[in-house]
Every structure is written in C-alpha cells, then in structure tokens.
Amino acid sequence: MTSQPRHRRPRYTEPAAFDQREGGADPAIISQAAHDTAHALVFHGRDSEDPEVTERFIRLAETEGIEAIAELWSDSPAHSLAGGLWRIYAIRAAVNKDPQRMSEYYQLGKTDSAPHAIAGVAEPPTAQEMDRLADLVLAGMYRGDIDSAFDRAGAFCRVIARGQALWAGGSERHSPESARRLTERADQLLRTAEELESAARGCRAGTLD
C-alpha cells in the first residue's frame, strides 16, 4: 500500500458482472498476480493487531487506487480468495452507491429467515446500517474470519436479491422494462450469493485457492 492516498474511486461494477476480458497479458501471470495480491492483503492483515491497518484495508477502494488490483481480481474464479474478495468489494461499492435504495430492497426482502440472521443487519435496516454492514464484512475478512465474511456477504446478497425480485414484481405493470432489468439483476445477485457461499465452504474445507 502507498503511504500517500491517491483518492481515486474504483470503477463500479454490478456484483455479478464478472465478464471475462480478452487480450492483454499472459493469463497465467495475471492469475498468479491476483492470487498473490489477495493473499498478501488478507493474510498480512491477520498478523496485525493495529486497527488502523484494518481500516486501511476497508478503505482501500477509496484511498489506494484499487483499479489495477481490481482488474486482476475481476477475472479470478469465484472459488478463489481473489474472486471472492472482488465480489465483496463490488457489493460494498453497490451499497455505497445508493445505500438508501439498498436498505429499501433489504427491508422488502428480509424475513425471519436464515439469510437475514446470517447477514446480521440491525433493525431497522437503514442506509447507515447498510454502510456499516459492508464495512464489518470487510473487517471480518481482514481480521481472519474469512469464511464468516463470505457467508455474511452471501446472505446479504440473498436478501437484497429477494427484495429486488419483489420490487420488480410490484412495478412490472407500470414499468415492465425497468422490472425486467431489476429481475435480471436479482438473478445475477443470487448467483453471486451462491458463489460466495461456495467460497465459504471451500475456505472451511481448505480448498479455496
């Protein structure tokens, strides 16, 4: 990490929009670089008891010019630390982009269900609470609770996806095109949830690259 923040924001991407890119450098080199940076960031943090180190990790997307690293991670398999880390960063970016709307989706999608309990969002799920949860998930990742961080992020995605689907269903009559797009986003987010949950299982089994 640099000592002087460059204050560049990452390019926003929908959490499930991890399309493969063509051309460029050797894929094997990119894959290894993605693996190395993800492991260095996460496991270096586990060795530190300094809360400022964790805070820098959480704010990396805003303060350290994450674009280059994110480009590496975005092509990583879902069942890898780099791929899972990118998904968590993308979820946080989505929350920060519009926390009020995310809180509305969450309020609509939550039930007395396991995903809501695992996500750990306090009641009521305000915009501020959405931001807080995103930071807590990343802090958990950096402090070593990696499988729990993946599980919480996956559960959060499930609740948001359900809220988006219900929102789309309620608006389909008046705005069918917007409803269709939102339904597609809900489907993508559900797949992201499944990928994060798979990463959590891989972490516990010791099979996560």
- Contiguous helical run count: 10
Low-confidence regions: 1-13, 15-21
Distance separating the two termini = 23 Å
Radius of gyration: 17 Å
Strand content: under 5%
Shape: globular
Largest beta-sheet characterization: none
Write the element-wise H/E pattern from the N-terminal end onward. Answer: HHHHHHHHHH
- Name the structural class: mainly alpha
In helices, the fraction of residues equals: over 70%
Account of the protein in words:
This protein has helices at 27-46, 51-58, 60-63, 67-74, 81-97, 99-109, 114-119, 127-143, 146-171, 176-205. It has 209 residues and is mostly helical. Helix 4 (67-74) packs across helix 5 and helix 8 (127-143) runs antiparallel to helix 9. The protein is globular, with a radius of gyration of 17 Å. Residues 1-13 and 15-21 have low confidence and may be disordered.
Features:
209 residues; mainly alpha; 70% helix; disordered N terminus
Summed up, what is this model?
With 209 residues, the protein is an all-alpha fold. The chain is built from 10 helices and no strands.
Ordered list of secondary-structure elements with their pairings:
Layout: H1 27-46, H2 51-58, H3 60-63, H4 67-74, H5 81-97, H6 99-109, H7 114-119, H8 127-143, H9 146-171, H10 176-205
